[in-house]
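User: Predict the structure for this protein chain, please.
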Amino acid sequence: MTAPVSAAPVTLLGGEVHTLVAAADLLAAGEKVTAWLPRQRIGGGVAPFQPEHTSLPLGFRLLELDYEESQAPPRLEEYRPGCPGHRPFIRVVAGYLEDLVGDAIVTLPPTRMWTRGRFVPDILHTVDLSPLPAMLDSQTRRRVCRELRENLHKKDTAPLLLGEKHPIQLQKHSYAAVSRANHGATFDKEFITPVAEKILPGQWQDVPADLRRKIWMPLFYPATLQAACENKPLSFRPHRPYSRLQNGNFDLITQRLLARISTHPHADIHWYDQCEGLAPARKGIHVRLDGASHTISPPVLLGLPPEHIFTAAGIPCALPKARVVVVWAEVETDNTTAGPELLLTIDKEIDIHRVSFAPSPKKPGRLLLVTELRGDLSGDPWQAAENGLRAMGVVRKNAPLHSAGCLDAPALPVPSFAARAVFNKAKEGFTQLGLQAHLFGAAEIFGANNLNEQIMQGITIARSLS
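Assistant: Here is the predicted structure, written as structure tokens:
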């Protein structure tokens, strides 16, 4: 039975994942939809890098479909982007992706990390501290435990400690300060600072603690860390399996959402290259696309990146970007000793931050090594990637390694206090314009733009309008 069709269409502007999810769900609920979609980079931040008609994963593209505390989700009306955001709704996200791309989801082996010249089980992405005792000598373990005990009794660290009577206001404190308070100086120096400094060199100290996952960093309870160092049973045992799509990209998600939208009889799709203006109108909003003006009646959903929305409305919003250096290398499957798991590199001597794997988009029998390098790299990216891959033994000695592409550009949005202040000021100015349009996604809450958040944002805004 087909749902009844509403009289007035819902208009969506933008091509982010949440926009596509909202459009597809509105159509499924019986609403008419007018979608204005960009010709370039459908999917926004999850779109692949596409040099010379090749689709390459832009960094690691992992699916988070389960957590140790997942349970029956709250009502959708209770979802709020940000922190905790999608976490309580992980079963909703997993069910949505299973329905959309379940045939292409591949479960990955546990992640590993390279530290002190060897591969060990990963503790930073998995947040499983059970392998920690084997990584540290007895003197280092005792030092970590002593620092944790001291921090638990210091007055100046008490406001930053997890597990205390009063919850930390993570958005008010830097991740660097909260890490030192909860982990101690030694653990921070061994595991946190080396990785964070590769991702955001010279800038990670300004990342708010509530945005630490924007740079893929963990935060451990001091009691759990202390128990791990003392080799005692852990009361917290995480369960965070990772999956990916078969080709290593997220583009299949956007392709199938677009297919659902474009084949629906009640969808009216228009394409544009540039959104140049947004302004209030007596009955709706004025939008300028590719030099042409349009007046759009509500309801209107603005699903563009926040800086695009605010700039088009005449509001300055220069959000800083950090340098991203990625090398894509191909190797014959028989000539690699790793994959398909994610590899994290802690050692400072290796310029690589992370390596993930995908099938070669052009050469059957080859693996694509997506090699992310430190943001302050001074030498040649290809040489740094090759040296690191061979030093870690990921590629066998003397095995041919083939270049598939390189990106070296300011592309990583910096999740800092300063950037959030710029965003909040721009959003306040936009709100004062009084446009009859809904902001959602990362244009509503700074930094709320990972895949799971976008899926929940699209689902909930569609539910509220249908």
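The longest helix spans residues 175-199.
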